[in-house]
Amino acid sequence: MSSYSTPPSSRRGQQTLHEIAVSRLISQFPAGIILRYEADNDQLEDFILGNKLITYVMFNFSDAVELVEEHESLHSYLSNWQVPIVTATEADDILKNRTRDNIRHLLERIQPAIYIPDAGKVYGNDLKSKQRGGLREYRIRVDWVLDEIERQGWEIEILPLAKAMEPWQFKEMLPWYRKHGFQNFAFYARQYYTHGNRFNDLRDHTNNLVDFANPDNIFMIALHGETHLRKLPSRVNGAAGLKQFIDDCNYDNDQFEPWRDDLEANALNAPDILEY
Description:
This is DUF2334 domain-containing protein. The chain is of the alpha/beta class.
C-alpha cells in the first residue's frame, strides 16, 4: 500500500513501543479526516495538543519551520502519540525561494514524519512547454528529497503529489510514478479555490489520476466539505483541512468525534457517484 521510500531508521539500538508505533504510523497511508495546524490560532492549538482523538496533524512547511525554531523539533511541540504530516504545498513565491538547505534543515527536525514535497508550476493557461518544465522541476525535487532521506538515514516517508492534471501530463508522469513504485498520492485542492470554485476541474483531474495511475489511495489537501468529498473518486481515503471543522464543531470535542466519523463513513468511504 505504501507509496513511500523506506530509509533506515535514524534511531540506534532497540526501539521503544512508542517508537515502533510511530514508525508504523508514518509508513502507512494517513487515512481519514485530519486537521491542519494554523499559526496564531490558540484555540486550535489547545484543541489539538493532548487530544487523544488526534493522531496525524498537518503542517504547512513555513509553519513547521516556525515551530521548529521555537521548540527545536515538531515532536517537542506535539503530544507523544501524534505524528506530523508536513506539506510543501504553498504559494509559488514561497516555493521558488525554498532551497535544498531549507529542506534539509527542516526534515532533520520533523522526523519521524510524513513529508509531501512540492516544486514547479503546472497551470492550464501556460504553454505546454512551460507546464512540462514544471513537471520536470517537480520530479527533480522529489528525486533529490528521496536520495537525501536515504543518504541521511532520516525517518521520513514521502507522500508524493500527483502534480499532473491533464491526460497528457499523466502520460508523461506515469513512467516516473512506476519507477518509484508510487501507489499513494496527494492532491492539492486549495489551488482550485483561489480564484473561484473550480471543483469540476478538481474532480476531472482526480479521475485522471485514477484512470492513468490506478492508485491505492489519494490524500486530498485542503478539502473537508462532505458534498465535494462524496463526489470525488472512492480512492480518496484521506483528507486534511480546517474550515469545516471550525464551522461545524467550534473546537468542541463532543462535536468533533461524530463529525469526523460521519465524514469518514459517508464521504471518504462512499461509493463513486456517477454523473451522466
